[in-house]
Amino acid sequence: MSIGGGIALIVIGAILAFALDLQVAGIDIQLVGYILIAAGVVITLLGIVFLTRRRQVTSTSRSAVDPVTGERVTRRSTEDGGGPVV
């Protein structure tokens, strides 16, 4: 659940809080709507933060034969892009 799920919660919460006029015993529909709106805002903000913090990682693998021993040598390196993917 990310940005789209957060927006969906905001919309459902707004419908419950502002558009419906129901009376359910033991449940305040407007309060449930406000809670869903708040949860949707938090989830949307977290989705945006995680989207901007995503980093690009590049992995490289090289194989060669050691001329002295004749063994196959594999070198692996990983580089972190260090910034957000644009």
Report on this structure:
The chain has one domain. The mean pLDDT is 85. The longest helix is centred in the middle third of the chain and has 25 residues, at 29-53. It is rod-shaped. By secondary structure, it is an alpha+beta fold. Strands 1-2 form a two-stranded antiparallel sheet. It has helices at residues 3-19, 29-53; strands spanning 55-65, 72-84. Helix 1 runs antiparallel to helix 2. Helix content is 49%, strand content 28%. It is built from two helices and two strands, in the order H-H-E-E.
Number of helices: 2
Indicate the structural class. Answer: alpha+beta
Going across the major beta sheet, what is the strand order?
1-2
Distance between the termini: 22 Å
Poorly predicted parts: none
- What summary fits the major beta sheet? 2 strands, antiparallel
What sequence of helices (H) and strands (E) makes up the elements? HHEE
Proportion of residues in helical segments: 40-55%
Domains, number: 1
Write the layout of secondary structure elements.
Blueprint: H1 3-19, H2 29-53, E1 55-65, E2 72-84
Helix pairs in contact: 1-2
List keywords for this structure.
2 strands; two-stranded antiparallel ribbon; rod-shaped; 86 residues; alpha+beta; 2 helices
In short:
The protein has about 90 residues and is α+β, with helices and mostly antiparallel strands. The protein has helices spanning about 5-20, 30-55, and strands at about 55-65, 70-85.
